[in-house]
Every structure is written in structure tokens, then in C-alpha cells.
Specification:
Largest sheet: 9 strands, mixed
Order of helices and strands: EHEEHEEHEHEEHEEEEHEEEEEHHHEEEH
CATH class of the largest domain: Alpha Beta
Structural class: alpha+beta
Strand content: 25-35%
CATH architecture of the largest domain: 3-Layer(bba) Sandwich
Number of strands: 20
Helix content: 25-40%
Shape: globular
Radius of gyration: 21 Å
Number of helices: 10
Number of domains: 3
Length: 399
């Protein structure tokens, strides 16, 4: 069977793209290939569950545009599909004088991105939102929310199946070749034929990209593990909703924060440490070939040289619960080490170029036979329907 489009990767971005595509053109023959025995097992299932507002992203960037558009589409989808979600709002808190200008910059960005109602709040107002949180300045963002993204992704999958699309689990893509303008996609089980490949392979998106286009050799996925603790049940009262620090503007992570989860509980974290395996969710997970690839990448070497102090601090917090607790105490001084129990971990697929640039924006590359989504970290889950719509439009121009 010749498919019009084969999508590689059954995470939230791949599923959203498939859903948008088949909704626009039900006549197209579409298949999604997922190497795991279940959908959305990796970045999606290990997501913190935050519906991002678009506060952090440079106005006009793909992240800003897609996050804000995707936010509204996601909320509407959850309403239609009766997926539980809450718009909780969040506070972003400065704890040091040096952070005040950054807090002002964040507020300005939020307002430029259309976040009406986002504002500076007094310390008394901060206490009203989060009674146990302390700081020297804060902003409140009403648009932020919480949802279980695994439920969202599975709903996209159901919609695809209902409209005649194919989803193939346990199909790891091994090789992609072109002959007579057709892609031959060899998986661990069989070979698929498709007019067009759409690569949404997340942590392996760079490898799949090079299968279909050898010229894509200037970007590598660097895996960063984010480790979480959870608050003990009897201490969950310390957090009402979401509490964030002012992030380091030069480091593409938001810093350890507190998140009330839609599926229950309160998470604290994550840190951001180099994973020694692309799907390395534990400190002991090592793939020496993948680690060697990371360490030998010229871009990573430059990143390591630039951020070694920050990286050492993140690594220290990874192995020291007391150091992790100390970082959390900047926001909630009452937090004690024994309030925390080990939580889960996620691995972020962070694209890095040869020059040491950690790609800050979403990155999508087109070639004759494929469309490759090469960088789609947070807020990709919030933005999934918007990113999916963008990629679907690129696909439809070819049909």
C-alpha cells in the first residue's frame, strides 16, 4: 500500500500533526509509526502537565506564536473531548535584587504576547495567591493551567483512528530510502511506502532526519534529564497552584519550580542535567555510543565550556537532596528535606548546532521527500495543535 504521508513518532506533536492533517484532508492515506508499544511514552508522558501561557518567549518567535495559538486550541479541544483541565494561573517570583530587571522583561514580553491581565503584584497579593511563598517581587499570569498531556495525546490518536488513519505500534524506523520519488521506510517489522515522510521523532529526530536527508548534519539532539521530587501528601498545602522562579535568560530551562498536577500531587523541580542516554530517565542509564556522540559534538563542547558553572550546580542538585531543597527554599522557606519524596524524570530533546547554539525556537526543515521537526521542546505540548497545523499546512501544499 502506498501512503500519502507517513509520520515517524507517536508523541504529542506527531499525533497532533496527524490529527490536523486527516481532519483537513480525510481522503489522504496517513500512517503514524511509533517504536514503542504505546503512544506518547517519552517526552509527552513525562511532561510536567503545565499549559503554558507564552510568557517567556520572544515576541514574534515560533514559540510565542504557536504557544499562544496552541493554548486556545488546546483548551477548546479539552472542552470538546471532556478532558479535565484547569486554568489555575501562576506566579513568577524574584528572590534577589539582580532578578528585578529580568522580572520586568518577562512582564513586558507577556504583555507584548497578548497576555492580558498579566501584571506585577504586591507581596501581600503574592501571599494571597501563595501564602507560603516569599520573594522581593512577583508577577501573576492568569492564563497558565494544568492538564494531563498523555490523555490529550491519546485523544488525538483516537480521532486519527476514527477518521481512517493508521497507527502502527512497535515499528521502529531503521532506514529510509528514496526510489522513483517514493520513500521506502524500513521498520523493525515491515517496509512502508509513502510519498512524503514527516519526522516528529523527538529525541531521535536528528537521526531520522539524516535517514531521509544526509545534508542535515548541522544539528544534534542533546538529551537533558529533568528530575523531580514530589511533596509529601501532608505538605501539599504549601503550594496552591504554580510557583516559578525568574529563569536565567541565557539558559534554556526555567529553573526548579512547584507545579500542582492535574493527575494529583505537587511536583518540585526539575533540575537539568545531561542524560547519558537519549532515553535515560535514571542516573544509572548509560548508552556509551550515544554519550560519545554527545561529548564529541563540537556544539556540545562549546555549550559545556559556556555553562560549566551552571551545569555543575545542576549536577550537584541531582546528587544532593539538600542542595535541591535549598534551591526550593528560595521560593518556599518552610520546605524541608524530609518533605520531599523522589518523583519521576523526563528527558528533553534539546537541539544544538555545531557552533554551540542551543536552539531556542522550534525548528522545522523541509526537503524534497520529507518535513523534519528538529526542535520541539517545551512548550511543544501546549503548542501541539498549532505546530501540528503548521506542519499540516506544509504537507498540504504538496498535495
Amino acid at each position: 500500500m502506498l501512503y500519502d504521508v507517513v509520520l515517524v513518532g507517536g508523541g504529542i506533536v506527531g499525533l497532533a500533526t496527524g490529527y490536523k492533517l486527516i481532519s483537513a484532508r480525510p481522503d489522504l492515506k496517513i500512517a503514524i509509526l511509533e517504536k514503542e508499544s504505546q503512544l506518547a511514552k517519552h517526552q509527552t508522558a513525562n511532561n510536567s502537565g503545565v499549559i503554558h501561557s507564552g510568557l517567556y518567549y520572544k515576541p514574534g518567535s515560533l514559540k510565542a506564536i504557536n504557544c499562544i495559538k496552541g493554548y486556545h486550541e488546546l483548551v477548546n479541544f479539552c472542552k470538546e473531548e471532556k478532558i479535565p483541565y484547569e486554568i489555575t494561573g501562576k506566579v513568577v517570583v524574584a528572590t534577589r535584587e539582580s532578578q528585578r530587571p529580568l522580572l520586568d522583561m518577562l512582564l513586558e514580553r507577556g504583555l507584548q504576547n497578548g497576555l492580558t491581565g498579566t501584571r506585577k503584584i504586591t507581596l501581600d497579593e503574592l501571599k494571597a495567591y501563595e501564602p507560603y511563598c516569599t520573594g522581593i517581587g512577583a508577577i501573576h499570569v492568569p492564563q497558565t493551567g494544568i492538564v494531563d498531556y498523555l490523555q490529550v495525546a491519546l485523544a488525538y490518536g483516537r480521532k486519527i483512528m476514527q477518521q481512517g488513519g493508521g497507527i502502527f505500534l512497535d515499528h521502529k524506523v531503521l532506514e529510509i530510502n528514496q526510489k522513483d520519488s517514493i520513500n521506502y521506510i524500513e521498520t523493525s517489522k515491515r517496509t512502508f511506502q509513502a510519498k512524503l515522510v514527516v519526522n516528529c521523532a523527538g529525541l531521535y529526530s536528528d537521526k531520522v532526519a539524516r535517514m531521509n536527508d544526509e545534508s542535515i548534519n548541522d544539528v544534534k539532539i542533546i538529551p537533558f534529564r529533568g528530575e523531580y521530587f514530589k511533596l509529601k501528601k501532608e505538605r501539599e498545602y504549601l503550594v496552591n497552584n504554580l510557583i516559578y522562579p525568574v529563569p536565567d535568560p541565557n539558559f534554556p530551562f526555567l529553573g526548579v519550580h512547584f507545579t500542582r498536577m492535574k493527575k494529583g500531587g505537587v511536583e518540585a523541580g526539575p533540575n537539568a542535567v545531561l542524560a547519558f542516554k537519549r532515553e535515560g530517565y535514571k542516573k544509572t542509564d548509560v548508552n556509551f555510543a550515544e554519550l560519545a556522540e554527545t561529548l564529541s559534538w563540537p556544539g556540545f563542547q562549546k555549550v559545556a565550556g559556556k555553562y560549566w558553572k551552571t551545569g555543575l550546580g545542576e549536577l550537584y542538585r541531582s546528587f544532593s537532596k539538600s542542595a535541591f531543597t535549598k534551591a526550593l527554599q528560595e521560593l518556599i522557606p518552610e520546605i524541608q528535606e524530609d518533605d520531599l519524596v523522589e518523583g519521576g524524570a523526563g528527558v528533553r530533546a534539546q537541539a544544538c548546532d555545531r557552533t554551540g547554539g542551543l536552539l531556542d525556537d522550534f525548528a522545522i526543515r523541509e526537503s524534497e521527500f520529507a518535513i523534519n521537526v528538529l526542535n520541539a521542546p517545551s512548550p511543544a505540548a501546549t503548542s501541539s495543535l498549532s505546530i501540528g497545523g503548521t506542519v499540516a499546512e506544509m504537507v498540504l501544499k504538496r498535495f
